[in-house]
Design goal:
It is a single chain. The chain is of the alpha+beta class. It has a single domain (2-95), classed as RelE-like (YaeB-like fold). It has helices at residues 7-16, 23-36, 87-95; strands at residues 2-5, 40-42, 47-51, 58-65, 70-78. The protein has a 5-stranded mixed beta sheet with strand order 1-5-4-3-2. Strand 4 (58-65) and strand 5 (70-78) form a beta hairpin. The radius of gyration is 13 Å and the shape is globular. The termini are far apart.
């Protein structure tokens, strides 16, 4: 399976994980490891949630492209009590 990562997912990742030189291959690798470990659940509208193995608070939102055998990481979010990007900022973006 090929894993593709959108620019939006890269931006969201860089907001949350510091010290990354090239985020796209890192995200693809993390999603692959989590997917192979079975940390996958179905989500609304045909999406798939993949929970990071190393940082279980990171959830990648992906779409499956079955004919191409591709998983596309479209965004991610962070769960938990102490997120790197506080919810007040992500909620403010949603209101705009």
């Amino acid at each position: 399976m090929t894993i593709a990562v959108t620019d939006h997912a890269v931006e969201r990742y860089l907001q949350r994980v510091r010290g990354v030189l090239d985020a796209r291959p890192e995200i693809a690798g993390r999603v692959r490891r989590a997917y192979e470990a079975g940390r996958v659940s179905d989500a609304p509208r045909g999406a798939v949630h993949v929970r990071d193995v190393e940082r279980p608070d990171l959830v990648y939102v992906c779409l499956r492209d079955v004919p191409r055998d591709e998983l596309v990481v479209v965004t991610l979010w962070e769960e938990g009590e102490d997120p790197a990007v506080p919810r007040e900022f992500t909620d403010a973006l949603r209101r705009q």
